[in-house]
């Protein structure tokens, strides 16, 4: 699978299929049963020997809740941080801090600090020379900004805006998804995450220096939440 830390990654169809199947914790046989085909057919898709026909693509699209276009097209993703390439360790330290901050604040039910603006929600984490601030306005409809400072100098920012679409939205599930952020995808949550009747999707274009993306949550067949985000380095 594609998990190259700090590099831009291209995923073709078979790699994406393996990744999505593993994210849902399905064996090749279990996926084949849902589609109504043989395990060998799935194995051939994942090895690149054959491709599914349109009817099978439609079923895969429904199972993974991903468009056929996105499923079959090669995508570039991952994390590149050109503004911190003087020393490899700087990049690793930055990512480690960013992930720690994200998982310790909103995703980790962190305590809010003093509002920096009227009625804002502010969550911060400081660790040595690094400072992280996440501040947002609203509730079911919201907008906010995450920023990172190194020795009081702002170096990276992400703006986001989203909304709850249905009463079956679960804030606990969203936090669980955001706590699964990785060095390869440190923006919001993973490409795909499923727990019970809830499914989370995230897609990102670009790298840490300049990116944009969207995340969605489905409850069974119902879309209950969406959020758009973008940002990059500001050096």
TrEMBL record:
The signal sequence is: none
- MF term (GO), any: DNA binding
On whether DNA-binding is a keyword of this UniProt record, the answer is yes
Report keywords, A-Z. DNA-binding
Cite the HTH cro/C1-type domain residue spans from the record.
17-71
InterPro entries hit by this protein: Cro/C1-type_HTH, DUF5680, Lambda_DNA-bd_dom_sf
Q: Name one Pfam family in it.
A: DUF5680
Q: Which domain of life is it from?
A: Bacteria
PROSITE patterns assigned to the protein according to its UniProt record, in alphabetical order:
HTH_CROC1
What name has this protein been given in UniProt? DNA-binding transcriptional regulator, XRE-family HTH domain
